[in-house]
Write a structure and sequence with these properties.
two-stranded antiparallel ribbon; single chain; mainly alpha
């Protein structure tokens, strides 16, 4: 029964992940698992000092844990399910008998560390939270692998489809997503699974801060393990408990560690174990306390304080990468980092794959946070999914018109790399790609040269993506003049700044303009026309 429930929730988690596509039509919020995570909710609320209503769904899990114990870990958590399945492939070094309390209490130290960092304004929960970790794994590893397999299958079917005149199938192809930090993500995920070598569910019993939080609430749960007098002390339950919740005395149970898997009741040869609701506390039967020494407590508090101090005083905190572009609708940087849990949902749904995880580009605090890489692709102006799937509203959910006015930055031309400026060649690609006619050609020192009209550029990045210059683009988007609002209308903010984001009418009046000071077309002296012709870039002709 438990395995069936685990598989169903894992399938649901996976299905919702793959339903996060354009257009977004899922009747269940695709980020529902993240919203139900009380650790993510607590860290985001404490760090941002703001309550985001959808995160209050996590109170359901906390409330049920009070009655049912750590059922979430045993039945719902998809990472726990994968850890359970992986144990068949990973040999164990020793039995499941209860480990050392000092090792078991690491998860409580991590929980205290994360809570303290959140209180001090730094949301680091993404490093250890199981749902954030697994969503990143799905985004950076499973999703690209799935698309690769789909395209491979389509390539194999393509000759048959051509013969049968199935035109749609013959030309079907999915954009292959690519992500930075995928190797690091793979190593960390493999490490979590390989910890099973030391003990079954080593991550869950010793390191998971979400398990620690749910364990604290489970201490007072009313659905408890009970052992009858039929017990013959064979200790089989002690040896095979997946979380080591049964100490050397089989009548006792550490209820903060028990995940209600019922495994002990199934394997008991005397059928002496049952799980029943009871309100009677009995220290002889239920050992519900966890031993967190003052040394461990002070170590957690001290580490959290030092890490916070290091993040605040790190040169990365002020000398952030000059090309750091956040998704449209992202909150102001400090608020954004406090709310973002680095789950990767926004990167998964990005139509053009321009959203990529940060490594050092936004400092130590911004690890795995989303950023635009326009050289890979521009930001599709008909898509607003990144804000729709963000579970903590670090990226605001905006209508398309508002999203278009959420100015990401301003394009800047590097004249030393531009083919027109540096080599006098004909190139109109950036102008042709701009959806808002923000790139125009003007006469400059006898030549027609490209210029960026700043109040028409919203930083979408298509010009940078399509620039034909090899290596770094000759036109790049910088965060200069970006608009990032915690609240209010982007459309109104753009109007106040006199920004104009209108679709390109398809003509460029500057290409038709005469050189200032010249005679009307057809009336220039022959000598002047020849001089202009010599100065014009290759492919341009004088009027």
């Amino acid at each position: 029964m438990r395995r069936t429930v685990q598989i169903l929730f894992l399938i649901l988690f996976t299905l919702l992940f793959f339903l996060a596509v354009y257009p977004l039509n899922s009747f269940i919020p695709v980020d529902i698992f993240l919203r139900l995570d009380p650790l993510l909710a607590a860290a985001s609320i404490l760090a941002s000092r703001e309550i985001f209503t959808p995160l209050l769904l996590s109170l359901i899990v906390l409330g049920l844990s009070f009655f049912l114990g750590r059922f979430f870990c045993g039945y719902i958590c998809p990472l726990g399910t994968l850890i359970d399945f992986s144990k068949k492939c990973i040999p164990q070094k020793r039995s499941n008998a209860e480990g050392k309390p000092a090792v078991r209490n690491i998860k409580y130290c991590i929980l205290i560390f994360l809570v303290l960092c959140s209180v001090l304004g730094f949301n680091l929960v993404y490093i250890f939270d199981p749902l954030a970790v697994l969503t990143r794994v799905y985004t950076f590893l499973l999703y690209p692998l799935t698309i690769l397999l789909l395209n491979t299958g389509l390539d194999l079917l393509r000759p048959v489809a051509m013969q049968l005149h199935w035109v749609s199938l013959a030309h079907k192809h999915y954009i292959q997503p690519l992500f930075y930090t995928n190797l690091i993500t793979l190593i960390l995920f493999a490490g979590i699974l390989l910890l099973n070598f030391f003990a079954e569910r080593f991550w869950c019993r010793n390191l998971c801060p979400l398990g620690a939080l749910l364990g604290i609430f489970s201490r007072w749960g009313i659905f408890k393990r009970q052992v009858s007098e039929a017990c013959n002390r064979c200790m089989k339950c002690h040896r095979e408990c997946p979380t080591g919740a049964i100490p050397a005395e089989p009548e006792q149970t550490s209820s903060s560690e028990c995940i209600q898997c019922l495994h002990c009741s199934k394997i008991c040869p005397q059928s002496a174990i049952s799980f029943m609701p009871t309100l009677k506390p009995s220290p002889k039967v239920f050992n519900t306390s966890f031993d967190l020494s003052r040394r461990s407590l002070f170590l957690s508090l001290g580490t959290g304080t030092l890490v916070t101090l290091a993040l605040k005083t790190s040169p990365f905190a002020k000398l952030t990468y000059a090309r750091l572009i956040r998704p449209p609708g992202a909150l102001p940087e400090k608020d954004f980092l406090k709310k973002c849990v680095r789950c990767g949902e926004c990167m998964k749904v990005c139509l053009t794959n321009t959203l990529q995880p940060s490594f050092w580009e936004s400092g130590l605090e911004g690890l795995w946070s989303p950023r635009l890489v326009p050289r890979l692709a521009g930001c599709d102006q008909t898509c607003n999914l990144c804000g729709s799937v963000c579970p903590t509203a670090a990226i605001r959910s905006l209508p398309l018109e508002e999203k278009r006015h959420a100015k990401l930055g301003t394009a800047v031309i590097d004249r030393e790399r531009c083919l027109v400026w540096e080599q006098n060649k004909l190139c109109l690609i950036c102008d042709e790609q701009c959806p808002y006619n923000a790139i125009v050609f003007k006469w400059h020192e006898g030549f027609r040269r490209p210029f960026v009209v700043a109040n028409k550029c919203n930083g979408c990045g298509f010009c940078e993506e399509k620039c034909p210059v090899r290596g770094e683009s000759a036109i790049v988007v910088t965060p200069h003049d970006e608009i990032r609002l915690a609240e209010g209308s982007y459309l109104e903010a753009a109007q106040k700044l006199q920004l104009e984001f209108k679709e390109d009418p398809g003509t460029d009046r500057f290409l038709m303009e005469e050189q200032p000071g010249s005679s009307p077309a057809g009336k220039k002296p022959a000598a002047e026309q020849g001089a202009i012709k010599e100065k014009l870039p290759e492919g341009f002709s004088a009027k």
